Amino acid sequence: MSQFTVTGQFKSRDGYSPFETTIDAENENVAREHVYSQLGSQHGLKRSEIELDEVSA
């Protein structure tokens, strides 16, 4: 497994909030899915409310 750093922003009460998180995943697509799942669960967001800017190894 590799570590991926995912950056982007998500919709919040005050507009958009930036985020950066590090995920252990097999590839970039799995890392993206994990971030969508994690942020959606923690903040009650839909995928359309999360914008991923960059996924880097």
CATH domain topology: Ubiquitin-like (UB roll)
Biggest sheet overview:
3 strands, antiparallel
Strand order of the largest sheet: 2-1-3
CATH architecture: Roll
The domain count comes to 1
Per CATH, the class reads Alpha Beta
Annotation field: number of helices: 1
Low-confidence stretches: none
What's the count of strands?
A: 3
The 3D shape can be described as: elongated
Mean pLDDT: 95
Domain Large ribosomal subunit protein eL20: 1-56
Family: Belongs to the eukaryotic ribosomal protein eL20 family.
Subunit structure: Part of the 50S ribosomal subunit. Binds 23S rRNA.
Organism: Natronorubrum bangense JCM 10635
Written account of the structure:
- A hairpin with a 2-residue loop joins strand 1 and strand 2 (15-25).
- The chain has one helix spanning 28-43, and strands spanning 2-12, 15-25, 50-56.
- The mean pLDDT is 95.
- By secondary structure, it is an alpha+beta fold.
- 28% of the residues lie in helices and 51% in strands.
- The radius of gyration is 11 Å and the shape is elongated.
- A 3-stranded antiparallel β-sheet has the order 2-1-3, with helices on one face.
- It contains 1 helix and 3 strands; from the N terminus they run ββαβ.
- The chain has one domain: Roll (Ubiquitin-like (UB roll)).
- Keywords: Ribonucleoprotein, Ribosomal protein, RNA-binding, rRNA-binding.
- This is Large ribosomal subunit protein eL20.
- Residues 1-56 form the Large ribosomal subunit protein eL20 domain.
- GO terms for molecular function: large ribosomal subunit rRNA binding; structural constituent of ribosome.
- Belongs to the eukaryotic ribosomal protein eL20 family.
